[in-house]
Each structure stands twice: as C-alpha cells, then as structure tokens.
Amino acid sequence: MRRLVPIILLLLCCAFGLKAQDYKVLSVESLPLDMSAREEIRTDEDGRQCALFRISTQEIASAFKEGFYFGSDYGAYVVERFIVDGEIWLWVSPGLKTLKIKHTKLGQCEVYMPNYGIKVESLNTYRIVIQGRGEALVTEGASTQQFIVFNVTPPDAVVTVNGVPWPLVDGFAQKKVEFGKYEYCIEAPNYQLECGTVEVNDPEKMAFVKKELKPEKGSNQANNETAPKKKERQPVKTLNFLTLNYAYTIAPQSSFGFTYGRAGRFGWFISLMSNGGFRANSAAGTCWSNDSEVPDGWVFDDSFEDGGWLPYYNGEYITDRNSLIVGGIARLAKPVYLKLGVGYGFRNLYWLTEDDTYYLNAQHSYNGVETLAGLQLDLGGFVLSLETVTTDFKYLEGKLGLGYAF
To answer: How many distinct structural domains can be found in the chain?
Structure first.
C-alpha cells in the first residue's frame, strides 16, 4: 500500500497538469493585396522563398498573449517570427499544409490549410485569427463580428457584398463583418446571376456560402453539360504471349510447335511448327499416285534403272512437316484479336516399298509460301488461338494454340 501512494500522487499531478485547449482558430484567410511577404523576404532551409502568416491574438486575453510557439508538418519549416503591431508574424515554407500552434498554458491545436481552401505559396501573405476561451477570452466587451466565407464555382466569378467586390482566391473569399444582414451577388460570363442574403449574428461560427453557378441556356458550358460525354478511349495493355500449338489435317498429318508475340491494339507474332521430319534429300526417288497412269498397287519410279514398276508396301507412309510464319495481330474488341501471317513451309509425303525404301510422292507434297489467318482470345491471362494455315494454297490444316499472356 505504501508503494502505491507515490504512484497515485504522480498520476494525480499528471491529471491536473493536463490543460485543455483554451483557444480556437477563428479564421484563416489569404491576403492577396498584402505585400508584406514580398517586402520582408525570408528563405527556408531548402532555399525556398517563404510565405508570411500574420497571426492575430486580439481575441486572446492580455494575460495569455505571450507563450505561443509554432511548428510545421514534415517537409516544411517555421523560419522566423516577430511581433509587429500586436500580431505575430511567422515565415513558413511554401506548401505547408499543417501549422501546429502551441501555448505554454492554453494547450495546442493544428490548422489544416486545405480545410480553409488555403494553398500556401511563396511570397503570399495570410492571416490567422485566434480567439480565447474561458479565462483566455477577452472580457472587455463581447464581440459583435463574424466571418463570412464564400466558396464559388467557377473560381473566376465576381462576388459583391453590399455592392463591394470581394476578390476570390481559388474560388474562396472571406471577411470579418459586423452583425447584420448582407446582400450578395455572384456573376460570371456565360453563367446565370446568383443573388441572396446571408445573416451573421454568432461570433462563435462562420457564415459559409457555397454556390455553383448554372450555365446560361445556349452557352458553351450548358451545351457541354447537356451533350453526352464521349467515353475516353482506355489505353490497351501491351502483353507478351506464348502458346503451344497443335496442327492437324485430314491427310492425315499432325505437327507441334509454339508461337511468341506481343499484342496491344496492334502487335506481331512468330510461329514455328514441325513434326521433326527432314527426309527429302535422302529419299530413294520420286513417285506419284495418278490412277489414270499408274496401276493399282504400283508406283512409277523415274530413276529405276529398267524404267519398270515397283510394288509399294501395303500403303504405309511417312511425312515431313515444317513451317515458319511471321505476322501481325490486331485487337478487334476485348478480348478478341485477329491474326494474319505469311512465311515458308513444306509438307512431304513418302511411300514405303517392301524393302522399307521410301519415295517422295510428288503429287501430294507441297512447299512454298505459307499463309495464316485466325483469331486469338485473351482470357484473363490465358490465351486461346484458332487458326488455319495453307501451303502454296494447296495444303490446308487447322491449328490450335493454348498458352499464357504476361
């Protein structure tokens, strides 16, 4: 128990030592006509020309005017401060978003500039008004003033209050006025005039007026708003793709290979197919199967030494098939692509004799220009292709591909 007493006393001291925030930021405004920041130029640690904050403490009781100090968010600096005519002049880095205000007795708060429509820029001047609460409130006389804040679209509109122009900065304007009713009008070329009344009677609040002007009928702005908006053309990703292919014809004949390419709106590809056969140079001779010239069950061999007839071996055969094609690919509509290509290839048919000698059947062998046409589908990263290929426009085969786009 004795050990708990010091701990309890320490906690009580901390609790009583915590001070609630006894002031508030009443307003933040830009002063575009104030040249103070340009006349008293300061630079921060990065060599940037500073902005100037004129911080008014007129709404703070005199006993608490001293003791304010300031900080900034990351990447900005509080460079220097002076007291000028009862105001705290504070030079800060351009781009500052959060100003941290602290007081040794009254607590601390943070001012987030975008909440007030403020963009802190070099050589510009801004005013912050701080008002006390509780014992820090000015008691000499109750305030009879209040801020009016306008937020207007378009930002280059003209705002007049009781006939007096209020300049807009990035669409915002604000001033502190005496209690009462104020008539305002907002106008801009090609927009409808907007007028109204705002009443101020509470020093604890800001009178906020937000207006978005409507375009005049027949103006370009109105036409732009009513006309259907064109859909922006979305960029098409350029993908590499690789497919493994299988080709087949009713001859029958089959081959295997791969296709590699790049596809965006347009692209290219290269395709290689083969069944591994390269026998043309090692064939024993040339034969053909024209029924009008060759008896059934025989083949004619030009190179046979006696010019006679040879029986062939039960119709058995072997084939060579090789193909190289390059081409272009174009996107028709998501996810369909059109493929067209040209290249070189051959398909050779060999008949076998009884002694396993093979002869090139010239009548059913083709070589020359190859053409390709087909479609390719991009199925969420997987690729499916269906194509037809011709050799010398005489030999036709279908080709199926399956692979991956990355």
So the answer is: 3
Q: Look up the domain containing 52 and give its range.
A: 20-136
DSSP states of 231-291 as a string? PPPPPPPPEEEEEEEEEEETTTEEEEEEEEEEESSEEEEEEEEE-S---GGG-S-EE---T
Find all residues with CB under 8 Å of 75, minimum gap 6, and list them. Answer: 93, 95
| Residue pointed to by tokens 């005489």 | 394
Q: 373 and 261 share a domain?
A: yes
Question: Which one of 110, 136, 162 terminates a domain?
Answer: 136
| Structure confidence by residue, pLDDT tens digits, 112-170 | 999 888 999 999 999 998 877 766 665 445 566 788 889 999 988 999 998 889 988 88
pLDDT confidence of residue 340: 95
Considering only CA atoms, which of 278, 307, 301 is closest in space to residue 359? 301
The H-assigned helical ranges of 141-226 are 220-226
Q: In this structure, are 309 and 394 located in the same domain?
A: yes
Q: Are residues 262 and 393 in the same domain?
A: yes
In this model, does residue 273 exceed pLDDT 70? yes
Give CA–CA dist 309/294, Å, rounded: 9
Which of 107, 136, 165 finishes a domain? 136
**Radius of gyration of the CA atoms of the chain, in A:** 44
- For 357-385, write each residue's pLDDT tens digit: 887 877 788 889 999 999 999 888 899 99
**Lowest-confidence pick of 118-127, 168-177, 256-265:** 168-177
Same domain, 165 and 296: no
Consecutive H or E run containing 11: helix 4-17
> For residue 211, what are its two tokens?
């207006």
Q: What DSSP line would sit under 131-146, residue for residue?
A: EE-GGGB--SS---EE
User: Does 209 share its domain with 105?
Assistant: no
Instruction: Say if residue 342 is in the same domain as residue 203.
Output: no
